[in-house]
Write a structure and sequence with these properties.
single chain; alpha/beta; globular; three-stranded antiparallel β-sheet; 12 strands
């Protein structure tokens, strides 16, 4: 079957495609790699015939028996690859999610179920004001009392405010930002852990929102970077990353990975027609996302990710320096590919789709998220335009 829309509709689609491709390098405020290299994947889909079927993965990707068409084995291999990078040395469970928010949904939901199984006491969700907005929204969706923690000027969670607000009589579900969405700050897990040990709530669950940074931190040469997302070192219970950021998938997808004991706490009565438990929040997932993750991991390889991670952060450092040399007060947090600076003219903001924010301390700001397709020549051009040189 080879179906095409009518000519008028196809022309409309073609015009939209040309416009989008023409502006693909003008979306700098958001963390997408606009040179995904996914064309070869789609050629393979067409060649194999997979492009003409429906492929859905259902329920637990680690189930042993399932007759419906699926790509579970590639989902498992993708999860296992990153679980090893994230230091889950005593086993793990995971799922390919629909993106960072869905990964956080699993983290908050699993966290609540785990804590309630330990204590029978409703937990409190703690999250920094600089963390992704989805976490607070998910607290509302899941009807969990949520306390917002202040952030320091850098964007990192203010751990002293966390100390003050932590309720030692109730379980603590702590959402930790590994790269705040605007300033790219990493919350201090060791200091958070010290406070939790001191105040000793009945039970603790730590979820890492590492949507962007989790994709590349394990591949940096600095061992301190890999430690940030190492569960055996930091003791976190679950982590979520996005596939459509550093991993360069061309549409929303993500990974959620947790400790095996966390997975055990969300098991319900088996669903007979699905051959077992359904621990996932959503039942059906894209089988093609699993193939995309596997394709990207195997085609890029660990060495390729190392090269990309280094080049990306080197270019971010270069852009920050280029802006500072031109008199723009640009800043960047450790291990971050986000460069933030005073908001430039509306013309520049619109041209490059810069993300903007009003900061209580620093006023009107914009940021650029440097991704793999950035070059130093491009960074120089941006610095000239932003500074008005």
């Amino acid at each position: 079957m080879n179906l095409f829309p009518d000519k008028e509709s196809l022309d409309k689609l073609n015009d939209a495609a040309y416009r989008i491709v023409e502006r693909k390098r003008n979306q700098l405020g958001y963390p997408f790699n606009q040179d995904t290299g996914m064309s070869s994947f789609y050629e393979w889909l067409a060649k194999t015939g997979l492009g003409d079927i429906t492929l859905i993965n259902v329920a637990d990707p680690y189930k042993e028996e399932w007759d419906m068409l699926n790509s579970d084995e590639f989902e498992r291999e993708s999860l296992d690859f990153y679980a090893e990078k994230f230091g889950f040395k005593n086993g793990h469970w995971g799922v390919i999610s629909n993106g960072g928010t869905d990964g956080n949904m699993h983290g908050v939901y699993f966290g609540r179920k785990y804590l309630e199984s330990k204590t029978k006491i409703p937990p409190v969700l703690y999250v920094s004001e600089e963390a992704h907005y989805s976490v607070k929204k998910l607290g509302d969706v899941l009807n969990i009392e949520t306390k917002t923690i202040s952030a320091r000027k850098s964007g990192q969670m203010d751990t002293e405010d966390f100390r003050v607000k932590l309720d030692s009589s109730r379980p603590a579900l702590v959402a930790i930002a590994i790269g705040g969405t605007f300033k790219g700050a990493i919350d201090d897990q060791r200091e958070i852990g010290k406070i939790l040990n001191e105040k000793n709530p009945p039970a603790v669950y730590r979820h890492l929102d590492a949507a962007l940074f989790g994709g590349y931190l394990p591949f940096l040469e600095d061992p301190s970077a890999a430690e940030i997302v190492d569960s055996s070192t930091m003791g976190f219970d679950s982590i979520a990353i996005s596939g459509h950021k550093f991993l360069s998938l061309n549409e929303p997808a993500g990974l959620f990975i947790c400790k095996p004991e966390v997975h055990e706490s969300v098991k319900f009565s088996p669903v007979p027609y699905l051959n077992g438990d359904v621990p996932t929040v959503s039942c059906s997932r894209s089988g093609f996302d699993a193939l995309k993750f596997y394709w990207m991991i195997k085609s890029t390889g660990e060495e390729g990710f190392k090269v990309q991670a280094k080049q990306m952060l080197d270019t971010a450092k270069f852009l920050q320096s280029a802006l500072v040399k031109r008199g723009v007060g640009a800043k960047r947090n450790p291990y971050s590919n986000t460069v933030y600076f005073p908001r430039p003219s509306d013309k520049i903001v619109r041209k490059y789709a810069l993300a903007c924010n009003t900061d209580a301390i620093e006023g009107n700001l914009s940021h650029i998220v440097v991704m793999q397709y950035f070059t130093k020549d491009f960074a120089e051009k941006l610095a000239d335009e932003i500074s008005g040189v």
